[in-house]
Amino acid sequence: MQFTLFAMISLITIVIATPISLLKPRQSAAAVDASTASMTDAQGNVISFSSPGVFQGNRVAKLCRALGMTVQMCERKGVPSTETRPNYTPFPTVLATSTVLFLTLPLTPATANLITSSELCVMRKDALVVNVARGGIVNEEDLVRALREGVIAGAATDVFMTEPAGRDNVLVDAARVGTLRDTGRLVLSPHVAWYGRSSVEKLRRVVVENVKAWCEGGEGNVVG
Q1: 39 Cβ neighbours under 8 A, 6+ residues apart
Q2: Is-catalytic flag, 204?
Q3: Could you say which residues form the signal peptide (predicted)?
Q4: What is the model's pLDDT at position 180?
């Protein structure tokens, strides 16, 4: 969750804050023409979550609402609008209306390549994509192309198709050279979004509980 909030704040307040984000060192905000500045704050943004409840989706959603954002919970891709669950928003509507799309769902055959050029091209030009779920959910080459061509405004990811990601990874390469590096429109971290003190403590506790349950002939935290 820590990375999710960091990515959102850094992208919203820096990437979209043109031309304020392009201030030179020691240059004050007063040097920017107020009529052309377009600083974007949290309030008024439309935040959408895929698979809320997984990977802290609900907790981040609560914080976003507290900041005055409109929160949408995304229905599964391919579900007709007439069959959308209560309190969920159809997948096409989420793509067309979101200023920030949080991907917080597991990688399965149904979610592999969930976001490709086809989805990115119908998103808003000021939209941000934040992936703290799994590599392979977003097509990495399509994402880089969309960023370079200005199809969307920015992206942040904590996960990669192949991990650990090296310099041959298309996202790492794009973030190292060229306009995406200079503008900060692509934020990367090496799959450490979960690595908070409470998460580590929970991991240790669950491991102990699983071993104890196995020794007693029972089941602990069963995944899958």
Answers
A1: 13, 16, 17, 20
A2: no
A3: 1-17
A4: 84
In a domain, 135, yes or no: yes
Tens-place pLDDT, residues 111-139: 999 999 999 999 999 999 989 889 999 99
Question: Mean pLDDT across the stretch 91-104?
Answer: 91
Dihedral sign (CA 202, 65, 12, 34) = negative
Distance CA 5, CA 8 (A): 5
Of 71, 90, 93, which Cα lies nearest the Cα of 79?
90
Task: Report the alpha-carbon angle 147-47-5, nearest 5.
Answer: 80
Catalytic residue among 65, 149, 163, 176: 163
Instruction: Kindly state whether residues 93 and 159 are assigned to the same domain.
Output: yes
Same domain? For 175 and 216 the reply is: no
For residue 101, is pLDDT > 80?
Answer: yes
Q: What is the mean pLDDT of the chain?
A: 79
Please report how the helices 2-10 and 57-66 are oriented relative to each other, as an axis angle in degrees rounded to 10: 40
The residue annotated as part of the active site, out of 76, 124, 145, 191, is 191
Residue 217 pLDDT > 70: yes
